[in-house]
Amino acid sequence: MNPPPIDPRTTIGHVHLKVADIGRSLAFYCGILGFQVTQRHGKGAAFIAAGGYHHHIGLNTWQSLNGQPPPPRATGLFHLAVLYPDRPSLADALRRLVNAGVQIDGASDHGVSEAIYLRDPDENGVELYRDRPRGEWPFTPDGELAMDNRPLDLRALLAEAR
Predict the structure, then answer these.
(1) Domain 13-66 matches domain 78-162 at the CATH topology level
(2) Separation CA 147–CA 132 (nearest Å)
(3) Would you give the distance in Å from CA 162 to the centre of its chain?
(4) May I ask the CATH architecture of the domain 13-66?
(5) 117 bridge partner residues
(6) Which long-range contacts does 5-13 make (Cβ < 8 Å, 24+ apart)?
(7) For each successive 10 residues of the chain (162 residues), what is the average pLDDT?
(8) What is the CATH number of domain 78-162?
(9) Exposed, middle or buried, 110 (CB in 10 Å: 0-12/13-18/19+)?
(10) Domain boundaries, the chain
(11) Is the dihedral of CA 91, 97, 98, 103 positive or negative?
(12) The dihedral of CA 162, 35, 10, 117: what is its sign?
C-alpha cells in the first residue's frame, strides 16, 4: 500500500553546505551570483539569500574548515538548484558567470526548464535554471510529462541578459 502524497504546497526551503573557506564561498555566491549575506554566525558560518528572505543557502566550516571536496563517485549532494523567475534573469546569471570566468560544466533545455550547470569553489554542483510556464511543458500523447535533455543555446540566452 502506497501512502498518500505530501501536501502539494510543500517546497524545499534552503540548502546548507559544508565549505572549506567562508570568504571564498561568499566571493562566489555573493560576489558572482549576487546573493546577499543576511547573517553571519561567527567566523564559521554565513547565511545568504535573494530578495530579503532569511536564507536560501547556509555556508559553514564547522566540520570542513580547509577541507577537501569529496572524491568523485562518492555519495552526497549532486547539486543545489537556484530557480530564477524568468529567462532574462537566467541570462543575467550567465552574464555574471562569463564575466567572472567561471567554468560552465553544461547547459540543457529540458523542455520544462532551461538549466546551466557548474561547480562552486568547493566542487559542489550548482544548477541555475528557470522553469517554462506550465502551459509550455511537453507531454506525450498519453499525457505523460516528456522532459528532454537538449543542448541549451548559451549565445541566444546571453543575448537576453538585462
Answers:
(1) yes
(2) 12
(3) 19
(4) Roll (3.10)
(5) 106, 127
(6) none
(7) 90 94 98 98 97 96 95 92 96 97 98 98 96 96 96 97 84
(8) 3.10.180.10
(9) middle
(10) 13-66, 78-162
(11) negative
(12) positive
Tell me if residue 41 falls in helix, strand or coil.
strand
Q: Which amino acid is at 109?
A: D
Instruction: Report the relative pairing of strands 57-60 and 15-18 from DSSP bridges.
Output: parallel
String of DSSP letters for 52-102: T-S-SEEEE-TTTTT--PPPTT-SS---EEEEESSHHHHHHHHHHHHHHTP
The cell for 16 is: 546548507
One-letter amino acid of 40: R
Other Cβ atoms within 10 Å of 91 Cβ, number: 22
pTM of the model: 0.93
